[in-house]
Write a structure and sequence with these properties.
It comes from Cyprinus carpio carpio. InterPro entries: P-loop_NTPase (IPR027417), Ser/Thr_deHydtase_PyrdxlP-BS (IPR000634), Shikimate/glucono_kinase (IPR031322), Shikimate_kinase/TSH1 (IPR000623), Thr_synth_N (IPR029144), Thr_synth_N_sf (IPR037158), Thr_synthase-like (IPR004450), TrpB-like_PALP_sf (IPR036052). GO terms for molecular function: pyridoxal phosphate binding. A 6-stranded mixed sheet has the order 4-1-2-3-5-6, sandwiched between helices. Strands 9-10-20-15-16-19 form a 6-stranded mixed sheet, with helices on both faces. The protein has a 5-stranded parallel sheet with strand order 14-11-12-13-21, sandwiched between helices. Helices cover 47% and strands 15% of the residues. The protein is an alpha/beta fold. The protein is built from 31 helices and 21 strands.
Length: 705
């Protein structure tokens, strides 16, 4: 039998050690090259180089084998063809495609013998190589099927079996790819190189990896987790390659470099990402970039199910969280929201499979008078199962401070763990898994400009972001760290302008400053959590400085950085703020001149950008929410008379002004389905919030006897 013969052949391969081995066969769908792994001698694992014909497996493998000082064995010549007495191509011709071993069976043999690396080479590069080799047909390519089609078809099978991807940039040489293979092997075997530390410490006595920080959320010392060695920097050729991909594939390629495969395998990560960014987004581009005027572009981040940029993180983060969870505990996710995070968290976690939802609860705290009516309806409509939203008679800062205080209370955390087998975590942007996916859309905006030939790689852009908790701005700076040529991040505030004041003066002063209600409530924040990550970044990881500054902020409501550090901050970040009148005026002017309706937060960004951007490079303004979420303010800005009180009528009114194509259908449906649902209103008392947490746990999980 053919199957038995191949199984015996692969058994021979699995016995080979300290040799470099190649094959143009491998399985009915794969061509392979083998390499014994000398990098991790105790494990004695082979390495399979997997990829289509023309990927360079043989050439790359020989270079790697020479660098590692290993003899070379060609599986085609020395194993398969000697056994068969004919070439692989002749064997295929003799038995036909259906007679070849199924990839499932053969790859199980191969996987047992070692590590599978996928040489992910650009299709156009492969076609050019095969053309130079005068190869116009490959194994398995039927009549009428183009080379490009068969290569694209095969890729799904490579994606299914890889342990790690070697992302080959456009035009990479075989020497470049060989270097990347060795780096990939080193990364896979050296997970300790991707540890996380707290912003408030230089070193962690207890090593923390991606899975740990996803679950813990906040570091034990009160700091936020950051990668110890920063972000990986991709090469220009890799960015050129990624620019040709759709959004979900861009996300996979970028996030694979940021999440170690021992924490989340590439296969699992790809599945999560494609589930996160699929039909649940109203626009097939996920985050379309639209030209607004002259040098300005709008990055629309509101096409997700809850109509805000938070969906870009919170359609993926719950899947990462569930994947990393230990099996023995229940988890209660605590979230403080200024409006958009709450509904996005509820939607994202509700989409988990039932087994995960049974052991994960969600409790949202939002300021009663600090969110729009539509935002409130989005949250209070989820009062079922293990999900609940509670209004607090205070502001966002109180809600966020209370959650941090709970995490910092060992007696409370211990009580919940012992009494209910429940651990607290968070889905705010203080959680690394909340922040990380946001890096992708900043990269994607630049890649769209690249693909549209607005610029060539290396040309700079500026990014303007409506800023409250600084997470979105921080993710843009991380995109810059990965190699995206972002020159300046412009932080735009409303009249709660503590961030812009800090960027200008170096002083973070909350003394005598009260939170003011605005038309852009998502950035109505005075105590910006992710500013801690930014100061850690700007100070080159000075954990002692960060600890002292933020302890001073807790104690005195004030800190000031040195002039040297302030000047360094200004090299990367600019900031400004706008009044309520300026915000509404911008909405009206853009609609009159461009026919485009901005939400209030995007308008804040537009006003600040117009004032301080020097117009010497393209500017991307992040549109963080759909205008329908803030319908009364937007209708007022558009000079609409007799604004309706009912949210559905408000959205209908916006439809008549902007056209149905500018409406967010999921938002409209949510409002039509929502009723006047009762919800809990809690006093601004920390102990009362703790009581709500314990009640939520009792209602959600079985009590441990």
């Amino acid at each position: 039998m053919i199957r038995a013969t191949f199984g015996q052949l692969f058994a021979k391969v699995r016995k080979l050690r300290t040799h470099l081995l190649f094959s143009q066969f491998g399985s009915s769908y794969f061509t392979t090259a083998w390499l014994s792994n000398q990098i991790s001698k105790p494990r004695e694992r082979n390495i399979l180089l997997m990829g289509p014909p023309g990927a360079g497996k043989t050439c790359v493998g020989r270079i790697v084998g020479q660098r590692l000082g290993m003899p070379v064995i060609d599986i085609d010549d020395d194993v398969l063809e000697r056994t068969w007495g004919m070439s692989v191509a002749e064997k295929l011709s003799e038995i036909g495609g259906d007679g070849f071993i199924e990839e499932e069976d053969s790859m199980q043999h191969l996987k047992r013998s070692g590590l599978v690396l996928f040489l992910d080479v650009d299709t156009e590069d492969i076609i050019q190589r095969l053309s130079r080799m005068k190869v116009n047909r490959i194994v398995g390519q039927d009549a009428g099927v183009s080379m490009r089609e068969i290569l694209q078809y095969r890729k799904q099978f490579y994606e299914k079996w890889l342990d790690a991807r070697v992302l080959c940039g456009t035009g990479d040489s075989v020497e470049d790819v060989a270097d990347k293979v060795l780096r990939t092997l080193g990364r896979y075997e050296g997970s300790e190189s991707e540890m996380f530390i707290s912003t408030r410490s230089q070193m962690s006595s207890d090593p923390k990896f991606f899975s740990d920080v996803v679950i813990e959320g906040l570091a034990p010392d009160g700091g936020l987790y950051v990668p110890k060695k920063g972000f990986p920097k991709l090469e220009p050729s890799e960015w050129l390659r990624i620019s040709s991909m759709p959004y979900a594939m861009r996300a996979v390629a970028i996030l694979e470099n940021c999440i170690h495969p021992m924490d989340v395998s590439p296969v699992e990560l790809s599945t999560m990402v494609h589930r996160a960014y699929g039909q649940n987004f109203a626009n097939q581009l996920v985050v379309p970039l639209k030209h607004l005027t002259d040098h300005q572009y709008i990055l629309e981040l509101f096409h997700g199910p809850t109509a805000s940029f938070k969906d870009l993180a919170l359609q993926l983060m719950p899947q990462l969280f569930a994947h990393c969870l230990p099996q023995m505990c229940n988890y209660l996710i605590l979230v403080a929201t200024s409006g958009d995070t709450g509904s996005a968290v509820l939607n994202g976690f509700q989409n988990l499979k039932d087994s995960d939802r049974r052991r994960i609860g969600m409790l949202i705290f939002f300021p009663e008078k600090g969110v729009s009516q539509i935002q409130k309806l989005q949250m209070t409509g989820f009062q079922e199962g293990n999900a609940k939203s509670i209004s607090v008679l205070s502001d966002f800062d109180f809600c966020q401070r209370s959650i941090k205080q709970m995490f910092g209370d060992p007696s409370l955390m211990g009580h919940l763990a012992v009494e209910y087998a429940t651990v607290l975590s968070t889905a705010n942007s203080i959680n690394w898994a909340r922040l990380l996916p946001q890096v992708v859309y900043h990269c994607s905006a630049y890649l769209d400009l690249l693909r549209n030939r607005t610029l060539t790689f290396g040309d700079p852009i500026d990014v303007c972001i409506p800023t409250g908790n600084f997470g979105n701005a921080m993710s843009a700076l991380y995109a810059k760290q990965m190699g995206i040529p972002i020159r300046k991040v412009i932080c735009a505030s409303n009249h709660n302008c503590v961030i812009s004041d800090f960027i200008a003066s170096g002083a973070y002063d909350l003394r005598k400053r009260k939170l003011l209600v605005s038309n852009s409530p998502a950035i109505d924040i005075l105590k910006s959590s992710n500013l801690e990550r930014f100061i850690h970044h700007a100070s080159d990881g000075d954990g002692s400085l960060v600890r002292d500054l933020f302890l001073n902020l807790e104690r005195d409501c004030f800190f000031k950085v040195s002039e040297t550090l302030r000047q360094k901050i200004n090299l990367e970040v600019q900031a400004g703020w706008c009044s309520e009148d300026d915000c509404l005026r911008a909405i009206h002017e853009v609609h009159v001149t461009r026919g485009y309706i901005m939400d209030t937060h995007t308008a804040v960004g537009k006003v600040v950008a117009d004032r301080i951007h020097d117009k010497t490079c393209p500017l991307v303004i992040c549109s963080t929410a759909h205008h329908g979420k803030f319908a009364p303010a937007v209708l007022k800005a558009l000079q609409c008379q007799n604004i309706p009180q009912d949210p559905v009528d408000q959205l209908d009114k916006l439809c008549t002004i902007g056209g149905r194509e500018q409406m967010h259908e999921a938002l409209m449906k949510c409002m039509k389905d929502s009723g006047d649902d009762p919800y809990v209103v809690c006093e601004a008392d920390f102990s009362k919030l703790v009581d709500e947490v314990e009640t939520m746990i009792q209602d959600s999980f079985l009590r441990v006897q």
